[in-house]
Each structure stands twice: as C-alpha cells, then as structure tokens.
C-alpha cells in the first residue's frame, strides 16, 4: 500500500528534516506502519524511492528493528513485558493468559517484549504502544477487551490501524 | 535520619502533576529562565566553567564527565551535532521515560544550553520507539518552544539558532550505545562502530557529535541556575549532585527517586520516604544495581551499607551505578531464573556484529535455561565460565573487560560472574541430577 496524500506530504517533510535523506528510513517506516498496520514490501519500496536508496537497503535496515511488523498483524498489538522485574511480579503469567485467551483472534496480536521502562508499576504491557501498568492476568484481559469493544481507543501510533 | 528525596530535576513534575509537560505549566514554574541566563554567558563559561565545576557525570550508564566529553569535540570543525540519547532500554530503568513524558521542556532547555555551549545548531532527540506518549509530548513541546522563541532562529534575541529533530527508534536495545544510536539515526542497522574515531571527532554524518543522556541534559538548567560549584556541594566525592534511581522488584514502594548521591543502598531500599522496605518484611536476597549490565550485590550489611558513589562501588565490589536502576529481590527468588532471563534479553538484543557476543550470549542463555528449569548438569557452571571467558576475559571482571566492540557482550557475563560469586553452592546443587528449580512466586501487585 502506498502513502495516502497527506502522509505523502508528511513523508516529504520528514525527509527534508535530515541532512541526509537515508536518515528518514525509520520515521518513514513508522509512518507507513501507522497507516497500514504493518510494514509491507510495497511500503518499503516507496520509502526507498523517497530517500534514494534501494528497497533492499530499506529492508536491511528495517529488519533489524523489532517494532516493524513485516507481516500483517492484529488491529491491537499487545506487548507484554517479561523482563526481570515483571518476571518476578507476574509478567509471564499475564503473557500466558493473554496468549491463550486471544489465540485465533485476528484482531489481537499478543507479543512478548523486553523491558518497557515501566518497572515502577510492574507488571506492565502496552496496547498499540499505550502503557498499561499494575496488572494481573484478569485486569490485562479486561483492558484488551475494552479496546475491542471500543471503551478504550487505541493510539494511532505504529503497530495497529487507527 | 530518614533518607529523603532531593528534588531538582524532578521538582516540576512532582509540583505540577496536572500540567508539568505543557509550556504554560513549565514557564510558570521557571522553565527557560536558565536558558535566558545561559545565552548571556559565553559558551566556554557554560561548559568549561559551570558544568565542569559541577562535576556532572553522564547519567546514561558510563558516568563520563559531561564537560570533558564536550571538550573532546574536534575544534573548528562544523557543523557539529548534539544527539540526545532517549533510547532508555536498560532493564529496570524507567527514569528517562518519566522525564520525557512529564517534563519535556526541561529537556529542551537543557538541550538548548548544551547546544549553545558546544556550538551546535541542529540537535536530534532519539526517543525509544515504544515511548508513544513521550514522542507526542516532546513533539508538542518542540512546537511550543518554537512559538515562544526558545528554539528556532535568533533565540531570545541572542543571535543563536537551534532546531531540534525528534527521531523515534524502533525497538533495539543496542541503539542506546552511542555509536549504534548514530548508525540508527543515519538510517542503518543499529550496530556499534569501532572506536576510535570517537563520535566527538567523527560522529553523526562523520561530523563532531556529542551524545548525552536525557537526565544529563535535564540537569543542566539547574546547574546554570545555582552555579556549578553549588551543584557540586550535593553528592559525595566525584559523584556530585543528585541522581534518579529507578527502584523496582520486591520493594514496597517501587518508583523513581531523586536522591543525593552518597546515601546508601539501605537508605534507598528501606527509607519510608523511598523504597519503603521489602514486601512482607522479607530479607533482600540480592540486588542488581545499575541496570542489567552490572554485576550484582547481595543483602549483606556490607552491600546494603555501601554508598551510592559511582567510583566506590566499582572499585570495591566491581559493580556499576550505571543507569540508576536498582532491582531488589527477596529470598523467594531463584537467582538462576533472573540470570537466565537477563541472558535471554542480551541474546535477543545482541546486534550480531561481534562473534563472541552473538554466539556466546545464545549459549549462556541455553545453559542458564536448563539450570533454571530443573535440567542443570554437573559442570554447567564451569561451562558458563568457559563461554563467558571468551566474551569478557577473566569473567569476574565483567563487564569491564571485553573482546567485543561494545559492552553488550560482557553484560551477559555479569550475571554469570555474580552467580558464581554469591550463589555458587545453590547453583551447583541445581546442577545435580534430579534437581528441580524453585518455582517463582508471583507477587500480588502492591
């Protein structure tokens, strides 16, 4: 999918911010992912044209970074931390519960992530990069359900469609 | 005497929880006064007098003196860049996120002061990709600062120009290493560069570049306001000033606490104003200071009574204050499980450039997995040592020796060295045939 008109204008602005266009690969990849919900090969080809490198170079850069989803994923990306503070306060149990509960639910992609810098209220997770802290398995599932039912609105930043 | 917080950098966000991140809230509580003052000074007087006198050391992990770092910039070479390291990813460190989300104007003010001092007109704020709220707030703050004449052309009539580009990372811990961060900012895979040349000589776009941490820059307005010498009265020895410590784990009151350097670990963990003690009043089994890369300490009096002094803890115990994290574990915790999870983290985050780290971290993770999951084999501790020795020669010196370009590899060895030093008998017993691991107790959220 290619950038829509307003995102294309934004893409040109982003490229112009940098002394070298190639620096815009990460921000443009975020922009594409915000729009499409994932980073498609088509988007990477368009980014390559915008910054003047080959599509392989864009793929080479983007494949290094775990936030870029190079396959379509659910409308809600639920990122559960299991790193060392969440580990001893129940993070793995939350991950297991959510993985079971939303197995086969195309709207929800549950992923295990590294430390989210939310250890003060561990265990923690993000839904489309919005922080949710102080969780247990039931509370975490209730939050995801709230997104699904529209009680909570997902932030339109990378990882999930608006 | 009860240890308490000394709030300089965190004052505004505590005083104005309702609007500390807005331009109005920030200006009403004194933001940008230090910038105005700095713009009347000479660049040299800021860096090589005030900041030098303050003794400010980098708050990102390495603890390098800020003024000295600035002084390494290749002279007469322009343009030069200031890059803000907001890629906070060190496990159990969550202080920069708080400063980014809740006081972005303090950060911008610090950036402007630093940029004026080093002669830079374009600064980059590299934010961790996951910080979506932080990104929105910093973007808004940059726009508002422009409108109020604190960024852009001819700032406050001084003739000084500065623009800030806010750049989001995308989920790579290694980009917190300054040369990897620069690679990432150039649109590359975030792999550390071989040094020299150091970024101060050839950094971003091969131009002289300073990379400073969010907390380091957020401290600058306070140094300008009170004067470097006054700031240096806070703290102890070469660890001057205040620091944010991210206290987490089995403490009753986890959180970020800004304290004067020199108070003890016991103060930080047990003071009712700070960590508040351990859940159910259990004993501390071990603690990891400085983030996941450091070696560990135990709950012994010797360790609990050690001062938060960067040089003292390194010279005495071989640990770091690093990024300011302090993870505390009570006696229900299986240290091999924590060590395994850290190894898993480092194996995942190794960029793959150096063989000892790429391969070694994976093997250490595998061996620690089987030990922590009840399948340890006799000789596993020796095996961990053998692998660790290839990454960080001497092992017990980890993370201060390395065969790799950057310190990520040695960081995985830190926990191996710590297991050997403090829990040798426990780990050896877990490597006996038939042993089952102690299950982790999942605590109730406080």
SSE topology:
The complex is a heterodimer of chains A (162) and B (446).
Chain A: H1 5-17, H2 25-36, H3 41-51, H4 55-62, E1 76-81, H5 84-89, H6 91-101, E2 108-113, E3 125-127, E4 130-132, H7 137-149
Parallel strand pairs in A: 1-2
Antiparallel strand pairs in A: 1-3, 3-4
Chain B: H1 11-15, H2 23-28, H3 33-39, H4 43-54, H5 66-71, E1 81-86, H6 95-102, H7 104-118, E2 122-127, H8 132-147, E3 163-168, H9 178-185, E4 209-213, H10 214-226, H11 228-233, E5 235-236, E6 239-240, E7 242-249, E8 255-260, H12 265-270, E9 284-289, E10 297-298, H13 301-304, H14 310-317, E11 325-330, H15 335-349, H16 355-372, H17 380-391, H18 408-422, H19 424-430
Parallel strand pairs in B: 1-2, 1-4, 2-3, 7-11
Antiparallel strand pairs in B: 5-6, 7-8, 9-10, 9-11
Helix pairs in contact in B: 3-7, 3-10, 4-7, 6-8, 7-10, 15-16, 15-18, 16-17, 16-18, 17-18
Strand order of the largest sheet of chain B: 8-7-11-9-10
Radius of gyration of chain B: 22 Å
CATH architecture of the largest domain in chain A: 3-Layer(aba) Sandwich
Oligomer: heterodimer
Instruction: Write down how many β-strands of chain A occur, each being a DSSP E stretch of 2 or more residues.
Output: 4
Major sheet of chain A: size, sense and barrel closure?
A: 4 strands, mixed
Taken together, the total number of domains of chain B comes to 3
Order of helices and strands of chain A: HHHHEHHEEEH
Beta-strand portion of chain B reads 5-15%
Biggest chain pair contact, residues each? A-B, 54 and 63 residues
Shape of chain B: globular
**Helical amount among residues of chain B, as a percent range?**
40-55%
CATH architecture of the largest domain in chain B: 3-Layer(aba) Sandwich
What is the tally of beta strands of chain B? 11
Helix percent of chain A reads: 40-55%
Spans of at least 5 consecutive residues with low confidence of chain B: 439-446
CATH topology of the largest domain in chain A: Glutaredoxin
CATH class of the largest domain in chain B: Alpha Beta
């Amino acid at each position: 999918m290619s950038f829509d008109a307003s995102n294309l204008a934004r893409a040109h602005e982003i490229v112009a911010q940098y002394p070298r266009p190639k620096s815009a690969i990460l921000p443009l990849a975020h922009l594409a992912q915000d729009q499409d919900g994932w980073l498609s090969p088509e988007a990477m080809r368009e980014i390559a044209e915008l910054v003047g490198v080959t599509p392989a170079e864009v793929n080479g850069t983007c494949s290094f970074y775990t936030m870029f989803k190079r396959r379509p994923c659910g409308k809600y990306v639920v990122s559960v931390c299991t790193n060392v503070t969440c580990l001893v306060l129940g993070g793995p149990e939350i991950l297991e519960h959510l993985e079971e509960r939303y197995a086969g639910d195309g709207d929800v992609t549950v992923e295990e992530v590294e430390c989210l810098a939310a250890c003060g209220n561990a265990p923690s997770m993000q839904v489309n990069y919005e922080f949710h802290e102080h969780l247990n398995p039931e509370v975490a599932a209730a939050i995801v359900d709230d997104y699904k039912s529209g009680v909570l609105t997902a932030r339109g930043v990378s990882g999930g469609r608006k | 005497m009860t240890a308490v917080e000394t709030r300089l950098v965190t004052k505004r966000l505590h005083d104005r929880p309702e609007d500390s991140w807005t331009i109005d809230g920030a200006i009403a509580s004194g933001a940008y006064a230090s910038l105005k003052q700095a713009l009347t000074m000479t660049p040299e007087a800021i860096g090589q007098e005030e900041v030098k006198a303050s003794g400010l050391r980098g708050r990102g992990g390495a603890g390098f003196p800020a003024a000295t770092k600035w002084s390494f910039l290749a002279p007469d070479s322009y343009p030069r860049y200031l890059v803000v390291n907001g890629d906070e990813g060190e496990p159990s460190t969550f202080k920069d996120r708080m400063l980014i989300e809740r006081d972005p104007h303090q950060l911008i003010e610090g950036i402007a002061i630093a940029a004026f001092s080093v002669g830079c007109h374009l600064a980059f704020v590299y934010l961790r990709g996951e910080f979506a709220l932080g990104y929105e707030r910093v973007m808004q703050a940059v726009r508002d600062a422009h409108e109020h004449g604190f960024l852009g052309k001819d700032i406050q009539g001084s003739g000084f120009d500065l623009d800030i580009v806010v750049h989001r990372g995308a989920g790579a811990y290694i980009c917190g290493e300054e040369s990897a961060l620069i690679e990432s900012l150039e649109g590359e895979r975030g792999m550390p560069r071989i040094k020299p040349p150091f970024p101060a000589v050839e950094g971003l776009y091969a131009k002289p570049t300073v990379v400073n941490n969010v907390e380091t820059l957020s401290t600058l307005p306070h140094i300008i306001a009170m004067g470097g010498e006054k700031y240096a009265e806070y703290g102890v020895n070469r660890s001057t000033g205040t620091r944010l410590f991210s206290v987490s784990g089995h403490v009753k009151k986890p959180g970020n606490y800004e304290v004067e350097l020199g108070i003890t670990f016991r103060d930080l963990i047990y003071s009712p104003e700070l960590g508040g003690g351990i859940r159910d009043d259990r004993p501390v089994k071990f603690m990891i200071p400085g983030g996941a890369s450091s070696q560990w300490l135990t709950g012994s009096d010797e360790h609990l009574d050690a001062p938060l002094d960067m040089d003292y803890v390194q010279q005495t115990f071989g640990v770091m204050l690093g990024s300011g994290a302090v993870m505390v574990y009570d006696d229900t915790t299986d240290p091999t499980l924590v060590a395994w999870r850290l190894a898993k983290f480092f194996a995942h985050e190794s960029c793959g450039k150096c063989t000892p780290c790429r391969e070694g971290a994976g093997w250490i993770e595998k061996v620690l997995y089987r030990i922590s999951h009840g399948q340890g084999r006799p000789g596993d501790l020796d095996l961990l040592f053998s692998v660790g020795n290839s990454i960080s020669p001497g092992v017990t010196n980890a993370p201060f020796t390395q065969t790799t370009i950057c310190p990520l590899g040695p960081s995985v060895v830190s926990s191996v060295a710590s297991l050997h030093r403090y829990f040798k008998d426990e780990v050896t017993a877990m490597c006996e045939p038939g042993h089952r691991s102690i299950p982790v107790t999942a605590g109730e959220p406080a």
